[in-house]
Amino acid sequence: MDLLSEASSGTRVLTARHISADKQFPDSNIAVNTTFLCHSYSLNPDFGSYFTALNTYAWVLWACGGAILLAICALYVITLRASVKHWRDNISHVAVVLSIYPIVAATSFISIIVPRARLPAEAVAQEAVMIALYHFFCLMIAECGGVEQFIRSAGGADLETRTMPCCCWPCCVIPRPKLQKQSLTWLRYLVLQIPIVQGVIYFIILVLWAEDFMLYQQNFVYFQPFIATSILSGMWGVVMCGRAITTIGYQPRHRFLVIQLALVIVKLQNGLARSLPDIATLPCIMRLHPAVFTNMVQNCIIIVEMLLLSLWAWRLYRRPPGKDLEKVLRDKVVVAVLEDSAPAIDIRVKDGVDNKSYNNNISED
């Protein structure tokens, strides 16, 4: 054998004698390899790679999302025009409260188109809901005729502090102050801190995100206790105010529930969608990281949810605000009966005492 001629004849693949070069071996553990490949994609993809991965589905998603967004904006205008008839004096508060649905839907639509805009869009959506909460608090006070009229209608009642989320121990020791101007001012500050504190926190988070995406990923969890404390304390103030105006006949429960659902969607649902790829092993459906794909699906769901909430808000705000007259009359009847029966009870007791002393005098004689 001429070794020089063999070496110069080109590159050759040498195999062992007991292995055939024509034999095909099956790929081992394709699912594991696919999972590794799926997680090797970027958590923060650029628009080009994102559009290439979606292919024709991108146009379908954008067309459907844009159509639903236009429907939500049209519903906002229709609801606002219908509410002017009954909420003319408080139309600015109503406009801000109703604006959360098109704003949240628009931010979700932007996140579907540009995945790198997810965090700024999420911050805008959450801040919109926090501002709407404060305006809903102002709307409840204005619905009662202002602070002074609210206090007169309450008639010196106690402010119920043992409500959600402070309805269990150790919150049971919180005193119940009188419903006065000072207590309403305290409630106003408690609700007003939500948009301020949330805005400051998300500004810091956005700075970390702009500096380094992984720095944001590693430190976001440390902001969660401050975010939760701010939201829960503010919601506590709104619930206390809602409970107080319910006692004088107003019914803001359904309007408050619509805002609560929007808050749950932008906070709790977003948090669950963010943690889902870390909790479960998701399949690789497209050439996208599972977290990016989950965020895309979740934003599509949010747009549909905002459409449903907009329809509910239209049904609520097209009707005039009014009191529950049966509850008001029932409370007045109970108070009147108690006031009428109190002197009779005193006289009866006094008569009983006089008769008893009179009988004792007779027995002594």
UniProtKB/TrEMBL annotation:
Cited Pfam families: Solute_trans_a (PF03619)
Keyword vocabulary terms for this entry: Membrane, Transmembrane, Transmembrane helix
Gene Ontology terms: cellular component: membrane
Membrane topology listed for this record: Multi-pass membrane protein
Stated name of the protein: Organic solute transporter alpha-like protein
Naturally occurring in which organism (per UniProt): Chrysodeixis includens (Soybean looper)
Subcellular location per the Swiss-Prot or TrEMBL entry: Membrane
TM regions (residue ranges): 57-79, 91-117, 123-142, 186-210, 222-245, 257-276, 296-317
SMART domains registered for this protein in UniProt: Solute_trans_a
